[in-house]
Amino acid sequence: MAYPNIKSFNLPTCCQNRINQINKKVAYGNALQSVITGGVLLNMFGPSPKGVCTVAAIQQTDFAAFAQALQAVPIITRAVAKKECEQEWFNHIRGGSGQVATFWKGMVDVFS
Length: 112
Description:
The protein is mostly helical. The protein is built from four helices and no strands.
């Protein structure tokens, strides 16, 4: 779908606030990926209970679950961002804000 030029378009404050909320959720998703990775590394190389050595800790680590968790975070983050954009799009369709609704439709398409 082709979208109109929005260079001279100013977003209302409600939209700017929603974009800030979306940015925060994307940042939380990025942080979650770091925490997951840090948890696995801590499990392998951190202080070991009952004298478990690093080799045993590496062997006991479920790398398939680790990979699934890391792959799921961006998918979930995109879905959350898309839902936020859809809510704002619907709000502006109902409110009769044509340009703003078109902007949010474009944002929904970006996260689809």
